[in-house]
Amino acid sequence: MKKRYVVIFLLILMFFISGCQSELFSDPNFSKDKIKFNSNIVINYGEKNVDTTKFVSGIDDIKIKDSNRLKDELRITVDNYSIICPEFDADELGKHVLVYSLGDYKYKVEVTVKDITAPLILLQNNEIDLTVGEKFSKKNLDYKIKDNLSKKKDIRISIKGDYNSKKLGKYNLKLVAKDEAGNKSSVDFVLNIYEKASLEIDKTNISLNIGETLLVSAKVKGKDQTVNWTSDNNTIVVVDNGKITAVSPGTAIIRVTCGNLAKEINVNVKAKETNNNANSQNSNNNKNNANNSSSGGTGGNKVTNPSQYNKYFSEVSIATYNEALSYAEGKVNSGVVNSYSLMPDGKGYQVTFG
Question: Which of 68, 109, 164, 291 could be stapled to 37 by a disulfide with Cβ–Cβ 3.0 to 4.6 Å?
């Protein structure tokens, strides 16, 4: 009787154990077709250590969030699920199968590795300058092309946009690169068509007296419109934007430049003559004064030691020259000297009386 009870107990125990095992194997945590994947998965060729967690969209009715993706571990955790994601490097074009693990079950998804990276264009200069009539093509452009798969010879280069190299203007164009997979990239650049460069001046030989000025005009064509004026001897003649001023006697050359073009102006500066009439008048005054003095009247002193009025004026400029000239003529007109000379020495002006 006791044996019968033992057998019955064992049968009941086995029933419960087998029932529990049946429920374990049917646990929804391990049922098939639980993982949902994105559709039409494309991976860019050349990508290393692909984040395969991003291809899983959900489990059952649970949507996978970014916070569920452990990208560094290639694992997804949500509720009581833990999905192990595969490692993958996209180093071969075509279709591939990725295998994901959930418990003892494996889930497969097909992905496609494609070249979806456009070529990289490195254009050294985004503005190209030509003169009317010059031929233009992509050979005028300084550029480099880089691509993750296609060789340089297999990349098609073209220029998009309308332009006319025979007509002045500014043209907005594009340099386009297309690789073997059909990926395109482009960069913008500007094509400027200018007149042919030229430089003309209205005078090439001039003669001036000290202190005189003359304005010379320059006419330029082409891209560069900046005109530079320089004197080869500023002690004789100075120039400021075409205005030429005679400083002291001698000859000098004014150089006019615009880009690579140059013209020259020959300048001859003559000394300014002293006022002979004034000197003659001063001499007569001195004689009259002497006569008045001998006859008992009052008059001026006889001109003696005129060198005591000699003076040096530092700095070479038209203003300094005018100051020295005014001083010299003032002494002559006052009657204390009969004549003067005004000479430059490269650093200033020496006034000497006689």
Answer: 109
From CA 68, how far away is CA 177, in angstroms rounded? 40
Over residues 339-350, the pLDDT tens digits come to: 888 888 878 888
Amino acid occupying residue 214 = L
User: How is the chain split into domains, by residue range?
Assistant: 28-114, 120-194, 198-270, 276-353
Please name which of 94, 100, 90 lies closest in space to residue 59, comparing C-alpha atoms. Answer: 100
The pLDDT of residue 315: 85
315 backbone dihedrals φ, ψ, rounded to 5°: 85, 135
Same fold, 28-114 and 198-270: yes
Task: Spell out the long-range contacts of 85-91 with Cβ–Cβ below 8 A and sequence spacing 24 or more.
Answer: 85/52, 85/53, 85/56, 86/52, 87/49, 87/52, 88/43, 88/50, 88/52, 89/47, 89/48, 89/49, 89/50, 90/43, 90/44, 90/45, 90/46, 90/47, 90/48, 90/50, 91/45, 91/46, 91/48
What dotted CATH number matches 28-114? 2.60.40
Please count the other Cβ atoms lying within 10 Å of the Cβ belonging to residue 165.
Answer: 16
b/e sequence 64-78, b meaning 16+ C-beta within 10 Å: beeebbeeeebebeb
Backbone angles phi, psi at 106, to 5 degrees: -115, 140
332 pLDDT more than 80: yes
Q: CATH number of the domain at 120-194, please?
A: 2.60.40.10
Tens digits of residue pLDDT in 135-178:
999 999 999 999 999 998 999 999 999 999 999 999 999 999 99
Whether the per-residue pLDDT at 264 is higher than 90: the answer is yes
Q: How far is Cα 7 from Cα 9, in angstroms, rounded to an integer?
A: 5
Other C-beta atoms closer than 10 Å to the C-beta of 268 total: 15
